């Protein structure tokens, strides 16, 4: 059992949880993820690691409440435990010591983006960040990002914070203004990552994306998380979750991610991190 | 009086039509009377050919003699001296190619039902006898075991018997490995696996679930942390795909994903259990091994109307256990033999609509000794299906070989070991089971775990002197 040492609600749909998990906290690096089961009857949910504390043996996860298992997770209070918490899984992000990088996050995608930006900041890279969400309320980790970013921009669907529109509108503005980035890291719903790549690809700006497809075990066993990158089939759990966005077949990813949609609407969502549907 | 019947005492089974709709066990097991009657068919030969066919050397005639005398508790103890998981082995071992394949009675009629008797003894003991653990003298020596499948659990149990402090590291949230995620309930009830695994834990083995060796901790770090030896039994958990067009369409599963959803995550009980599985009306399973049979029969139980096994050789070469092929046919699984898939066809929404196959014929024997299948040119046809399960085997999971220094591996990923000792190229690191052989049987993995335990014991004893 893995004890919950801190928990708070970030907005109506999204919670942050800090869990005691020594095997994970000692080893994890930005870009990696965990799989948890809230209780005996829950699914195995993959969630990216938002932060970690090696001295306290803790790992921070941020999740959107979308189905049965995340609802169960939300009912868990500080002092209680989650049943299973395994990791770190996946390859750590390959963070390069560029001069200038742009991070783009949609919804809870800000959670996996944060440790990568934090690490880049520690490496001395100048980072700008665009964070998008449905409205002001859905922008998460603003204060945390502010501490480590050079510039921070916002985009909301209703215009309640930053630009009214999408993160890609802000991206276009920045590029139109002549801003130059050696790399873009985009994490959020597939449709958002695809839209970002449609802008960066013609300009040949390297773009890393983080995929979070349906998976069960997270160790390469089930093959459910296969994605086409370039001409190859890759397993997101062991080859990813980060991939070269310019090569990812997003249409196939979106199709595969919707495989269980009708059943999910019925009772639950499997193996999907919430934000990919909205934001 | 020996029973000279040329046939085994029949084991009661669920009716094929009825069982195609439930996940209850197919074979129901012997009663005490039936077991004694079958035990009487054993001729108690001095040469014991059956034992030489058993990868873990169960003293077969001895335990059968005890069954005949009605001494079931003693029969159990005789088996478990060599085999810690008899209820499992009695159900899933390929007996026809092992013990029973060498039985003298098989020359004229059917072999003695060794598997059925082993199963009976284990079930009877678990139901009727209260286990007492013997006191074991404890050694202050730590050994780590990677993977709680048949190989790892056997190795752990054997070492615990000798007094070692054994810690098992398991990546999943349940113990048993393929016994839990792979083999379906109707062939191997999960409660029984849990019970049999518990007998090993009760020997004082410590269990660490949710630890992925190679990620959460490495083999090198285990050695640094004071484990004097490490046994790697991480299995063959990397599914093979065909590399065909359309393989990433919705509705295409690896057998691992399909069976894990159903067995480990209990998708058969959806929506009472939250993990779903998508199964269509027409299902093609590609492959001819036990896993393919399991996937096909599972699909049937989940409501599929037409279930095909697509296999490129003929029935004679099917690698699955005879009993499973027989059960599958009885239940109405349609064997599409001498057919090889060439393409998976999908609709505009990305869902599978068909499996294109080409007919095959058998040519000269190949390296495997089996006749090589050749495509019959121009014989392509499309099997109309909405689900395809790929069950053509697994290769070893790469995490351990990628993260362990000094470990020699084969090109295809298997860890290289000394045949006798299961010792790898790295000092104090042993390996066995599917991670060494590629996907094989439960009993071979157990045999390897046992051999490794002996070798580890010998090595660590030398160290102490």
TrEMBL record, chain A:
The UniProt record gives the binding positions of FAD as: 62-64
Which positions are annotated as binding [2Fe-2S] cluster? 222, 225, 237
Q: Which GO terms describe its molecular function?
A: 2 iron, 2 sulfur cluster binding; flavin adenine dinucleotide binding; metal ion binding; oxidoreductase activity
InterPro entries from the UniProt entry: Cyt_c3_hydrogenase_gsu, Dihydroorotate_DH_Fe-S-bd, FAD-bd_FR_type, FNR_nucleotide-bd, OxRdtase_FAD/NAD-bd, PyrK_electron_transfer, Riboflavin_synthase-like_b-brl
Cofactor binding description: Binds 1 FAD per subunit. Binds 1 [2Fe-2S] cluster per subunit.
- Which Gene Ontology BP terms does the record give? pyrimidine nucleotide biosynthetic process
Cofactor needs: FAD; [2Fe-2S] cluster
Query: What keywords would UniProt list here?
Result: 2Fe-2S, FAD, Flavoprotein, Iron, Iron-sulfur, Metal-binding
**Domain FAD-binding FR-type span(s) in chain numbering:** 1-95
Q: Which NCBIfam families match?
A: PRK06222.1
Query: PANTHER family annotated for this entry?
Result: DIHYDROOROTATE DEHYDROGENASE B (NAD(+)), ELECTRON TRANSFER SUBUNIT, DIHYDROOROTATE DEHYDROGENASE B (NAD(+)), ELECTRON TRANSFER SUBUNIT-RELATED
Q: What is this protein called?
A: Ferredoxin--NADP+ reductase
Q: Which organism is it from?
A: Natranaerovirga hydrolytica
TrEMBL record, chain B:
Q: Where is the FAD/NAD(P)-binding domain?
A: 142-449
Q: From what superkingdom does this record's organism come?
A: Bacteria
Q: Where does the Dihydroprymidine dehydrogenase domain lie?
A: 20-128
| Pfam assignment, any one | Pyr_redox_2
Q: Which SUPFAM superfamilies match?
A: alpha-helical ferredoxin, Nucleotide-binding domain
| Gene Ontology terms, MF aspect | iron-sulfur cluster binding; oxidoreductase activity
Annotated PANTHER family: GLUTAMATE SYNTHASE [NADPH] SMALL CHAIN (PTHR42783), GLUTAMATE SYNTHASE [NADPH] SMALL CHAIN-RELATED (PTHR42783:SF3)
Q: State the name under which the record lists this protein.
A: Sulfide dehydrogenase (Flavoprotein) subunit SudA
């Amino acid at each position: 059992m893995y004890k919950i040492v801190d928990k708070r609600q970030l907005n109506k749909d999204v919670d942050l949880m800090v869990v005691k998990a020594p095997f994970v906290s000692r080893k994890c690096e930005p870009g990696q993820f965990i799989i948890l089961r809230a209780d005996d009857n829950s699914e195995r949910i993959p969630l990216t690691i938002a932060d970690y504390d090696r001295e306290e043996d803790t790992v921070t996860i941020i999740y959107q409440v979308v189905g049965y298992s995340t609802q169960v997770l939300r009912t868990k209070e500080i002092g209680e435990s989650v049943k299973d918490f395994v990791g770190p899984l996946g390859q750590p992000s390959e963070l390069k010591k560029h001069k200038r990088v742009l991070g783009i996050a949609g919804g809870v995608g800000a959670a996996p983006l944060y440790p990568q930006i934090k690490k880049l900041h520690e490496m001395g890279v100048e980072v700008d960040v665009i964070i998008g969400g449905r409205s002001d309320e859905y922008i998460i980790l603003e204060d945390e990002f502010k501490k480590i970013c050079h510039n921070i921009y916002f985009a909301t669907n209703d215009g309640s914070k930053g630009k009214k529109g999408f993160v890609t509108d802000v991206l276009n503005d920045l590029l139109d203004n002549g801003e130059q980035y050696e790399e873009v890291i985009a994490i959020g719903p597939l449709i958002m990552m695809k839209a970002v790549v449609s802008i960066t690809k013609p300009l040949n700006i390297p773009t890393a994306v983080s995929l979070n497809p349906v998976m069960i075990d997270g160790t390469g066993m089930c093959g459910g998380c296969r994605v086409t990158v370039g001409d190859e089939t890759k397993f997101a759990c062991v080859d990813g979750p980060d991939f070269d966005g310019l090569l990812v077949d997003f249409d196939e990813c979106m199709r595969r991610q919707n495989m269980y949609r009708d059943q999910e609407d019925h009772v639950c969502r499997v193996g999907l991190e919430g934000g990919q549907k909205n934001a | 009086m020996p029973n000279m019947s040329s046939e085994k005492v029949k084991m009661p089974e669920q009716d094929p039509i009825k069982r195609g709709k439930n996940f209850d066990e197919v074979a129901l097991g012997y009663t005490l009377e039936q077991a004694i009657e079958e035990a009487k068919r054993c001729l108690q030969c001095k040469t014991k050919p059956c034992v030489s066919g058993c990868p873990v050397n169960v003293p077969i005639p001895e335990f059968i003699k005890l069954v005949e005398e009605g001494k079931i508790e003693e029969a159990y103890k005789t088996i478990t001296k060599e085999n810690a998981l008899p209820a499992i082995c009695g159900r899933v071992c390929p007996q026809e190619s092992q013990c029973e394949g060498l039985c003298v009675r098989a020359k004229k009629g059917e072999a003695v039902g060794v598997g059925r008797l082993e199963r009976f003894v284990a079930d009877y003991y678990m139901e009727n006898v209260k286990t007492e653990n013997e006191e074991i003298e404890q050694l202050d020596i730590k050994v780590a075991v990677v993977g709680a499948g048949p190989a790892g659990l056997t190795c752990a149990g054997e070492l615990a018997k000798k007094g070692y402090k054994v810690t098992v590291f398991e990546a999943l949230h349940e113990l048993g490995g393929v016994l839990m995620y792979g083999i379906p309930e109707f062939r191997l009830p999960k409660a029984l696996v849990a019970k049999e695994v518990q007998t090993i834990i009760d020997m004082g083995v410590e269990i660490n679930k949710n630890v992925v060796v190679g990620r959460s901790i490495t083999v090198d770090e285990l050695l640094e942390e004071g484990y004097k030896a490490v046994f790697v039994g991480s299995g063959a958990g990397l599914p093979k795909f065909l590399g065909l067009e359309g393989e990433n369409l919705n509705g295409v599963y690896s057998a691992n994903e399909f069976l894990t959803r159903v067995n480990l995550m209990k998708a058969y009980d959806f929506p009472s259990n939250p993990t779903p599985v998508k199964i269509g009306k027409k299902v093609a399973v590609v492959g001819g091994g036990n896993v393919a049979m399991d996937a096909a029969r599972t699909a049937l139980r989940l409501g599929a109307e037409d279930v095909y096994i697509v296999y490129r050789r003929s029935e004679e070469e099917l690698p699955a256990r005879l009993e499973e092929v027989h059960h599958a046919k009885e239940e109405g699984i349609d064997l599409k033999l001498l057919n090889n898939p060439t393409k998976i066809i999908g609709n505009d929404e990305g869902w599978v609509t068909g499996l294109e196959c080409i007919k095959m014929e058998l040519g000269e024997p190949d390296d495997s000794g089996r006749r090589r299948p050749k495509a019959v040119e121009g014989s392509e046809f499309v099997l109309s299906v909405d689900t395809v399960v790929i069950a053509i085997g697994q290769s070893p999971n790469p995490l351990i070989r990628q993260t362990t220094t000094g470990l020699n591996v084969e090109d295809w990923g298997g860890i290289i070991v000394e045949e006798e000792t299961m010792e790898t190229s790295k000092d104090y690191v042993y390996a066995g089971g599917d991670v060494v052989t590629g996907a094989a049987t439960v009993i071979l993995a157990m045999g390897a775990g046992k051999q490794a335990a002996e070798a580890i014991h010998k090595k660590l004893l030398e160290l102490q002197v």
